[in-house]
Amino acid sequence: MSERDDAPAKPRPVPDERSEGYWAAAAEHVLAVPRCSRCGGVSMPPGPVCPHCRSTEPDFQFVPVHGGGTIRSWTLVRDAFLPGFRDDVPYLLVDVALDEYPNVRLIGRLVDGPDAPLHLGDVVTVTFDDLDDDSAVPAFALAR
Amino acid sequence: MSHGFTARGEIAVAGYAQSPVVRHADRPLGAIAIETALSAIADAGLAPEQIDGFVTGSLLPSAGGQSAVDGVSIVTANWMAEQLRINPRYCSGFQGYGQIPGAVMMAVNAVASGAADYVLFHRALHNPPGRYHENPMTEARGFAQWTAPQGFWGPLSTIALPYNEYLQRYGATRDAMATVVTEARANGARIPWSYWYERPITPADYLDARVISDPIGILDCDIPVDGVAAFVFTTAERARDLPNAPVYVAGYAQGSPSVPRLPSHWPLDDIMDAGFELATRLERHSGLSLGEIDLPQLYDGFSPFIYFWLEALGYCGVGEAHAFVQDGRIATDGGLPILSGGGALGNGRMHGVPQMLECYLQLAGRAGDRQLPSRTLGLACHSSPHFGGAVLYTNQEL
């Protein structure tokens, strides 16, 4: 073990059998949302039951989206409750409604830095924070 | 007005006890819970052997991933009954966020149905060692995979998002909340069992306090504590033969979100949509107009909940609560007493207990030198409107 006081690791997503399609796409820098094979409804996160049609066998398919959306809210995190983010504060989290599925709201880090001027309705596009070669986490960037 | 509550006015609170609210107790939570339960039973003029129902909500509301140990960090209804060596006819616990109204409904329904004659309702809250919400996870499994990898963790960011949505949408400022928080602390400072007894704050104290997840600062959050409260429920008929003035349950309602979201993501519209529906349900269940409430105890575990409840219950228009709370309109002395019991901000993280306790004390005429004149209908709210509930109490026979 290292004697250095390294920052603890960030929490790494551990896919399960319902979410592996989401994380596999993210690793390829593609945002893909779960669509119910029975009714076609899209929802996040993928659970055991489709919240639209109540199917208990939704067999979610992960549909790529272009990743654009609008900011519905944000918060500047100044004190991290996850030790892995201790060296990252302050950072912005944004609450984003996806253009293609406005009822799907995602929360991601905004990569433009903590001082980015934000307004409701600002347009963002998805980007990715690489954890390593096999794993990436969706984040957002202000559209230029 | 017709009402949907077939047991309206037929169930009553007959007694109570409240432990001191402290940062860290010097003995296990279960010991305090048993002592508080026995005090409440005695206060109601009963013997422990007469209790045949136990109800609680035992959630440890921390994001820190601490293990819950019954009798130490949580206290379940079953544990309580076992320790008191009572084999109850009814013993149950509420699952969900709005623990106080949720569990009160169970206690009321148990008495109303005859499942139990005397229900001991308790709530025990614990402050674990270490930082309350800090979680050392390095692998995000299950629900956590949708929030922790991007650094979205703990209820401060959860509430910061709809609060900022509110501020941005309605052009409100963070500074306006100073009125709410100072009012809660002023009232809590008058309550001997409160953690904040004799410690009011000024607006400057609020504005100077550390901001943690904008716009949520440390003084927008209730402080984690160890504390226990207990109440005895029975039929109104039995309660009238007991020592204290009965406080009757006039109705109740819950809210719940209608749209699936990421874990801990609480958009403003989800909160408010459920809040308006809760208000409608409450009027239908009780057959009473919300306009008759003269003791609305709103929940304030995070200060923005006050705005959401005020607007959901119709005390002001949507987007107007930040202005409504100014100029003495929520002052206990002369205004709408929404925080007269100090709330969670003025007592410590007792969940919805301060709201319920204030309704009981004022309506039973037991509030001592804090007694408000001629109150007849109280409302005890808890949690966010979309994961919470509210209970109507009255000292009038219905």
Tell me what the structure shows.
The complex is a heterodimer of chains A (144) and B (398). In chain A, the strands form two sheets. Chain A has a five-stranded antiparallel beta sheet, with helices on one face. By secondary structure, chain A is mostly beta strands. The mean pLDDT of chain A is 94. Chain A has one helix at 20-27; strands spanning 12-13, 31-35, 61-65, 68-77, 91-98, 105-110, 123-132, 135-142. By secondary structure, chain B is of the alpha/beta class. Chain B contains twelve helices and twelve strands. In chain B, the strands form two sheets. In chain B, strands 3-2-4-8-1-9-12-11-10 form a nine-stranded mixed beta sheet, sandwiched between helices. Chain B has a two-stranded antiparallel ribbon with strand order 6-7. In chain B, 58% of the residues are buried. Classes of the chains: A mainly beta (144), B alpha/beta (398). The interface between A and B is large, with 47 and 49 residues.
What's the count of strands of chain B? 12
Question: Which series of helices and strands of chain B comes N to C?
Answer: EHEHEHEEHHHEEEHEHEHHHHEE
Main beta-sheet annotation of chain B: 9 strands, mixed
- How far do the termini of chain A sit from each other? 44 Å
- Beta-strand fraction estimate of chain B: 15-25%
Question: Can you give keywords for this protein?
Answer:
heterodimer; A: 144 residues; mainly beta; five-stranded antiparallel sheet; two-stranded antiparallel sheet; 8 strands; globular; B: 398 residues; alpha/beta; nine-stranded mixed sheet; two-stranded antiparallel ribbon
In short:
Chain A contains one helix and eight strands.
Question: How is this fold's topology laid out?
Answer:
The complex is a heterodimer of chains A (144) and B (398).
Chain A: E1 12-13, H1 20-27, E2 31-35, E3 61-65, E4 68-77, E5 91-98, E6 105-110, E7 123-132, E8 135-142
Antiparallel strand pairs in A: 2-3, 4-5, 4-7, 5-6, 7-8
Chain B: E1 11-18, H1 29-43, E2 53-56, H2 77-83, E3 90-93, H3 99-113, E4 118-125, E5 139-140, H4 155-170, H5 178-188, H6 203-208, E6 211-213, E7 216-217, E8 227-235, H7 236-239, E9 247-254, H8 268-286, E10 295-297, H9 304-312, H10 321-324, H11 343-347, H12 353-363, E11 377-382, E12 389-394
Parallel strand pairs in B: 2-3, 2-4, 10-11
Antiparallel strand pairs in B: 1-8, 1-9, 4-8, 6-7, 9-12, 11-12
Helix pairs in contact in B: 8-9
